[in-house]
Structure formats: C-alpha cells, structure tokens
Amino acid sequence: MGSFGAESPLIAGRYRLDFRLGRGGMGTVWRATDELLQRHVAVKEIHVGEGLPESDARSQRERTLREARTVAQVRHPSVVVVHDVVEEDERPWIVMELIVGRTLADRIAAEGSVPPREAARIGLALLGALREAHRHGVLHRDLKPANVLLEAPAGRVVLTDFGVARMDGGTTITESGTFVGSPEYTAPERMAGTGAGPESDLWSLGVLLCAALSGRTPFQQDSLGGVLHAVMAGDIRPPEAARPLLPAILGLLERDPARRMGAAEAEGR
Predict the structure, then answer these.
(1) pTM for the full model?
(2) N or C end: fewer C-beta atoms under 10 angstroms in the chain?
(3) Is the pLDDT at 55 greater than 80, yes or no?
(4) Domain spans of the chain, in order of start
(5) CB-based contact 268:251 (threshold 8 Å)
(6) pLDDT digits (tens, 9 = 90+) for 75-98
(7) What is the domain class of 101-268 according to CATH?
(8) How confident is the model at residue 267 (pLDDT cuts 50, 70, 90)?
(9) What would the mean pLDDT of 120-140 be, rounded to a whole number?
C-alpha cells in the first residue's frame, strides 16, 4: 500500500492513512491526517505477534501498548512527540508528530561528513534526549544516524524510532527472541548478553559521533563476525576528523560500562 484514495483506512476512528513513508523490521510508518484536530501526523504500525500462537501474540501486543505509553511520557525538544497509542486490527499503532526533514544518515550520504561544530550540536541535543528518556527508565537501544531526524528548515535534532526501546525491568518492544539493534552501534555489554543500561545508549552515541564526523564507524567491517570482533576486542581508533571531540568520544567508547563517561560529563566536554 503506497497511497490511498478517498476510502483510505481510518485508524481508531480518527487517523486517516495517507501514504506510506517507510517500512523497517519493527514496523511501517505512514503519513496520516488527524481528522479530529485537522493536522498531519506520523503513524507507526508496529509489527508484533506475527507467526505466534494467539495467546502469545495477545500478550506481546498488550506489553507493546503498555511500554509504548511509557515512552509517550518522555518529553524533550529532541525526542519525537508521541500523541497517541491505540490498537486497531489487533495491532498497536503509535501516533507521533510529523517531522519534515531528513535523517542524519541521509544528510551524511548526500553531503558527506558533518563539521565538528555541527556534530557537537547534534551530540548535545541527543545527550539531552537520552538523559530525559533514561530519567523515565526508557532505553533507546538503537541509536544510529538513521534514527536521528534533522527538521527543516531550522535543523532541530529529533531522536525517533523507539521501536526497540526498553523500559528498565521490562522487555523489548516487539521482542522476538532475536537480536535487536544495529551491530556497529551496539555496546559490548549488549553483544556479550550481560545486560544493558543507560551506558549502552551512551556508547552508541560515541559511535554515532564518529560516523557523523567521518562518514563511517570505527567498527565497520565486511562481515557481521568482523563487526562483532571489532566491537568486543578490536583497537578503537576514532577517525582523525573526531579530534575536536576526542575526549568525549573516547570517554563514551570505554568498553567497561562502569568506567564509561556519563551524560553529564560528556555534556561538559
């Protein structure tokens, strides 16, 4: 379904789907119209429960709705605003503000690496977003350039796609028993299966800054096995372009989460 006519689907009796913006492993994002408030929104259809026994699928949907509503409590200028969380056709749908702009990944692909001052601005915005999310017990777990939006024309930095987010003590949204996230951006403790905390998101931010400044991560390899080895045991060599932000990046890329630089210290660097 790429676009619709006059009879396009109406979600929760209110949100009329206009056309599909994108699709990933965790869900499909639609541009939609909120017919009650007469505004455009983004609606994410979460893919959960597919292929599971009905009892397991129901439990997963209920957990997803509960956890998505917790994510909706996170309020920060650099966190995408969640307007509503509903269930339709036995699927959870998350209604969010519609951001007009492009992802950081698209920006890097189109124009190359980001200047240090702009990378610092993006990093500070994301640190603020993560601190607020962590205050609510929410871990993002998939921080990467494709999940960072740069709103046009002002360039507001917005962290989005909490599709694999996790609440402290909870399970993953759309948990399927498989690894979730992006290996090059995933902290060593998550790779080792020893758990994840706010420190894991901060590692991902350090990798993201390297990618923004040079166009690639320090762990880019030709195979998944190579990536895993690079993250877990390889030499960490931030790119030369990262020199202006090197103290913060090296602190964030400390393999031992107990010694990793915290958000407050990184903001001061």
Answers:
(1) 0.84
(2) N
(3) no
(4) 10-97, 101-268
(5) no
(6) 999 999 989 988 888 788 989 999
(7) mainly alpha
(8) confident
(9) 93
The single-letter code of the amino acid at 227 is V
Q: How many residues does the chain have?
A: 269
Alpha-carbon distance of 88 to 204, in angstroms, equals: 33
Catalytic residue among 84, 89, 106, 142: 142
> Do the domains at 10-97 and 101-268 have one common CATH topology?
no
Structural domain 10-97, CATH architecture = 2-Layer Sandwich (3.30)
118: nearest Cα among 77, 149, 157, 79: 157
User: Which residues is 46 bridged to in the sheet?
Assistant: 27
* pLDDT confidence of residue 168: 47
